[in-house]
Design a protein that fits this description.
27% helix, binds 2-acetamido-2-deoxy-beta-D-glucopyranose, EC 3.4.14.10, secreted, 2 domains, alpha/beta, protease, Peptidase_S8/S53_dom_sf, zymogen, single chain
Length: 573
């Protein structure tokens, strides 16, 4: 999908014949796509009386200031390390300036519209209005489109404009030009097994821990990554959040079966439920979601004794992407003692399917989480260099939000040491976010070692991901009353998030701040020492062999696989 951000003069002339320099009401093109994006088709025009709900993203007071502050409190070498901000302090950076608020209210009031704020920081306003009126307000042409493969319908426009006087106050209006394929259940394979008769499942191997002989469960992960089985002692203020989307429901019966077999000492542990955007958590066994079951089982069963909150995000936000911002708002409005210290998400998008403006807004949201001391951890995707899922592609497809420098992206490896990169482990370089300084030397070293290989297929100046990796193959879960072995970076994210939650438990016990935004720490000399470099494997896609795992950081396994004692040492415990 091609987006135009710099307005070409010819288009400007088409939108308005008046000179916007003198006429503040002249409509100036704000965002557009040159054609209906591949995979979508126009179905129909839409009645001007049908209602549409739009979100207006306002310019914030000082987002660069928040970036600097977030780096300062997250870098172990900085005097402010660990001094996370309060939500009120974040608001000072993110709230729109008064001039912006008044310009927007005046504009909307003149059209008889009363917006409601849908963000903690009032930087997102929502309006519901007839399509005909939206077309006038934004010089748009809203129509009904369908995502052909899924049949999902959406109302979008190929371009929209804003009054010249408001351009400096509005980041973007959404959903307008964002044609985002619906989220799909991640994961690449599921094989039914009988966990109580493991010897029939997979051939045992003598060279690996006995607990890993047939599949990968919590005891194998404990052996491989040094994860303790002792229960966390500081549960009151250390919740591990698990994000759920697309009606993936976490089932308590599956959880109980899983714990009985894999963690009998934890039977009785369960998750608390939080719902936003109309989310639910249906407990019928036939509606148990494979991803939600995996994510809850590999947090509750790995982060022993850490309270887990399953946050089910419904589709009231209507467009798939806003839920990734709404979950952040919902967490930021919780009392500080109740909100998670770690949030794991195993869902994502192909970066190119999000307009840059929207990808930046999602990234800003997760930066706010980092600023207040919450680690945002994402699966890198399961399509190798081809994106979240394998797809046809002519250039490599980075994933979102992994390309955001303020999240920690987790790639996938095989299940036992010496770990190799999993073939599906997504990784590469963002086209929207430049290489952040914390990884600049690592990215330069990797690019130096591959020379001109794949020149033109990826962005040499982009943020490289993933940051770390963990086991993603033959992970044993209970789903809809039976055992399954699953693969995918969806496994790696909750496993790594659980390790961070357990480190946070020890930090709280020692009277220290929790880790928050992880990357500056992970890439620091002490942080990286907690990882075992992964030096074999590759991640094919787009008719190539993909990148190779090499000595040092690489764009399929990051810094490598974590070691729990190494992490404790790195934080000085
Ligand atoms: C919690 O405290 C008990 C008793 O002091 C200890 O044995 C256990 O290892 C602690 N758990 C963790 C995760 O530190
Ligand atoms: C590559 O990344 C840089 C840094 O984010 C960006 O400015 C540039 O537009 C990207 N190039 C392409 C072709 O997307």
């Amino acid at each position: 999908m091609r987006l135009t951000f710099i307005l070409p003069l010819a288009t400007l002339a088409k939108v308005s014949s008046a000179s916007f320099a003198v006429d503040p009401n002249a409509m100036v093109l704000h965002e557009s796509v040159t054609a209906i994006p591949v995979g979508f088709a126009q179905v129909d025009t839409i009645s001007p009386n049908d209602e549409i709900t739009l979100r207006i993203a306002l310019v914030q007071s000082d987002i660069i200031g928040l970036q600097e502050k977030t780096y300062a409190v997250s870098h172990p070498a900085n005097a402010l390390y660990g001094q996370h901000l309060t939500t009120a302090e974040v608001a000072e950076f993110v709230n729109p300036p008064p001039a912006t608020v008044s310009a927007i209210s005046t504009w909307l009031a003149a059209h008889g519209l009363t917006p409601k704020s849908v963000s903690t920081f009032d930087d997102f306003l929502q309006i519901t209005l007839p399509v005909g009126k939206a077309n006038t307000l934004l010089a748009a042409d809203f129509r009904t489109f369908t995502h052909v493969a899924s049949g999902t319908r959406s109302v979008r426009t190929l371009s929209y404009a804003l009054p010249a006087a408001l351009k400096a106050h509005i980041r973007f209006v959404h959903p307008t030009v964002a044609f985002v394929p619906p989220l799909r259940v991640p994961g690449v394979a599921a094989v039914k097994v009988n966990p109580t008769r493991r010897s029939e499942a997979v051939e045992p191997r003598a060279s690996i821990p006995a607990s890993c002989a047939f599949d990968t469960g919590p005891s194998c992960l404990q052996a491989v990554f040094g994860i303790p089985s002792a229960k966390a002692n500081n549960s009151a203020s250390n919740v591990l959040g698990v994000a759920g989307y697309i009606d993936q429901f976490a089932n308590t019966q599956d959880l109980t079966n899983f714990l009985r077999n894999e963690r009998p000492d934890l039977v009785g542990s369960t998750f608390s439920l939080q719902t936003i955007d109309g989310g639910t958590n249906d407990q019928s066994i036939f509606n148990a979601g494979i991803e939600a079951d995996l994510d809850t089982q590999y947090t509750i069963g790995v982060a022993s004794g850490v309270p887990v909150s399953f946050i089910s995000v419904g589709d009231d936000s209507q467009d798939g992407v806003s839920g990734f911002i709404d979950i952040v708002n919902s967490i930021l409005t919780m009392p500080a003692e109740q909100r998670p210290t770690v949030l794991t998400t195993s869902y994502g998008f192909n970066e190119q399917d999000l307009p840059a403006s929207l990808a930046v807004a999602v990234c800003d949201a997760y930066m706010s989480l980092g600023a207040v001391g919450i680690s945002a951890i994402f699966a890198s995707g399961d399509g190798g260099v081809g994106g979240v899922q394998s797809t046809t592609c002519t250039t490599f497809v980075p994933t979102a939000p992994s390309g955001c420098p303020f999240v920690t992206s987790v790639g996938g490896t095989t299940n036992v040491p010496p770990h190799a990169a999993a073939l599906f482990s997504s990784g590469g370089f963002s086209n929207y976010f430049p290489t952040p300084s914390y990884q600049a030397a690592d990215v330069a070293a990797y690019l130096g070692s591959i020379g001109t290989l794949y020149d033109g297929l990826y962005n040499r100046s982009g943020r490289g991901f993933p940051d770390v990796s963990a086991a993603s193959h033959n992970i044993l879960i209970w789903w809809q009353n039976s055992g399954d072995l699953v693969d995918g970076t969806s496994c790696a994210s909750p496993i790594f998030a659980s390790m961070i939650a357990l480190v946070n438990d020890r930090l709280i016990g020692a009277g220290k701040p929790v880790l928050g935004f992880l990357n500056p720490f992970l890439y620091s000399p002490t942080g990286r020492a907690a990882f075992t470099d992964v030096i074999s494997g590759h991640n094919p896609g787009c008719n190539t062999d993909g990148f190779s795992a090499l000595a040092g950081w690489d764009p399929l396994t990051g810094l490598g696989t974590p070691n729990f004692d190494g992490l404790l040492k790195a934080v000085g415990l």
